[in-house]
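Translate structure to sequence.
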């Protein structure tokens, strides 16, 4: 760090994104992107807006908000669009958390929660997952803290049923409960239907996974209107034009093309289940997943060794060094052909280590 770097950030450990190497062509199964291109509608809508890039984007995201409200069954004043769901999560830490309103989240979850807490000077508690990597709902009932729950969780892939989410929300009426649903479209229950019932619930989602727009950076938060006004106060105090023209248009196109969205989600789920069965045949323990990835470990080889050997052979998966999960790897679901190649390669690696 330079001598000019503020002391308020001297202990800040930034989030580590998944690898984006360029030294060779990889089968890229490490960052939970969709293996399918954007909807043709999304691409066409974005192309049209490229001709207007001399003009600022609409800070209210009017067309996108209107389309999303109709699609999701929400009021237009119950949605805020952001530069990826990471931005609305950061807004939530800034808007609702402070020394009097600390945060709480699992010890094994999305790594950005700790970063956002530290960046915003928010004290936080990491609550251990059970030994089977599930969330104990009782650990979050009536705890008098703002709660951040990834559901399904990442990197484990495990989801809570909606009744458990509701129990957490209901038992913490004086605190915000943020349900991060980045992967919800791949088989979990969304908490969006609970928004009208609970004024302390904020649901976040992203277009990066199931709608194939990771490179466009588009996410949103959904909550009752007072919470959305709070988040907009933070937005308009930092970057009113946070969603660009092309991304907004792509988002509208993606929402309108429901057939393409549903087909890709269905195919991803089918490929996920195929991959899970094949890895289990190779002796892997694979956690139940309702996401577009699997979390797997083997007694035959440790997580880091498998990750490195796969990388040598042109396949990227995500390995974490955190003690509780260092023997696991997170494997994004690609195309059927990519997953067959992964399984063949893993088979050769594990056979060679016996």
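Result:
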């Amino acid at each position: 760090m330079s001598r000019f770097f503020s002391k308020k950030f001297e202990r800040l450990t930034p989030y580590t994104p998944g690898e984006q190497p360029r030294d060779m062509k990889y089968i890229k199964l490490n960052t939970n992107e969709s293996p399918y291109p954007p909807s043709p509608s999304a691409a066409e809508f974005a192309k049209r807006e490229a001709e207007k890039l001399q003009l600022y984007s609409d800070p209210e995201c009017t067309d996108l908000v209107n389309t999303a409200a109709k699609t999701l069954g929400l009021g237009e004043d119950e949605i805020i669009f952001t530069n990826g769901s990471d931005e609305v999560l950061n807004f939530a830490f800034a808007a609702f958390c402070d020394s009097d309103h600390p945060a709480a989240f699992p010890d094994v979850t999305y790594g950005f929660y700790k970063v956002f807490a530290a960046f915003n000077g928010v004290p936080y508690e990491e609550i251990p997952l059970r030994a089977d990597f599930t969330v104990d709902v009782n650990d979050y009932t009536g705890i008098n803290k703002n709660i951040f729950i990834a559901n399904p969780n990442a990197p484990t892939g495990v989801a809570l049923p909606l009744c458990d989410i509701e129990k957490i929300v209901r038992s913490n009426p004086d605190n915000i409960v943020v349900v991060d649903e980045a992967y919800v479209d791949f088989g979990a229950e969304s908490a969006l239907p609970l928004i009208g019932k609970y004024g302390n619930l904020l649901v976040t989602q992203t277009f990066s996974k199931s709608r194939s727009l990771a490179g466009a950076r588009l996410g949103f938060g959904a909550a009752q209107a007072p919470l959305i006004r709070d988040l907009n106060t933070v937005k308009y105090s930092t970057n009113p034009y946070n969603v660009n023209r092309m991304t907004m248009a792509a988002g509208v196109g993606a929402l309108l093309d429901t057939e393409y969205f549903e087909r890709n989600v269905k195919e991803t789920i089918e490929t996920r289940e195929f991959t899970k069965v094949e890895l289990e045949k190779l002796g892997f323990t694979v956690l139940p997943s309702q996401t577009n990835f699997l979390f797997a470990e083997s007694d035959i080889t440790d997580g880091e060794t498998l990750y490195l050997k796969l990388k040598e052979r042109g396949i990227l998966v995500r390995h974490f060094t955190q003690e509780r999960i260092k023997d696991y790897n997170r494997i994004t679901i690609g195309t059927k052909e990519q997953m067959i190649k992964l399984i063949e390669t893993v088979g050769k690696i594990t056979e060679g280590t016996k």
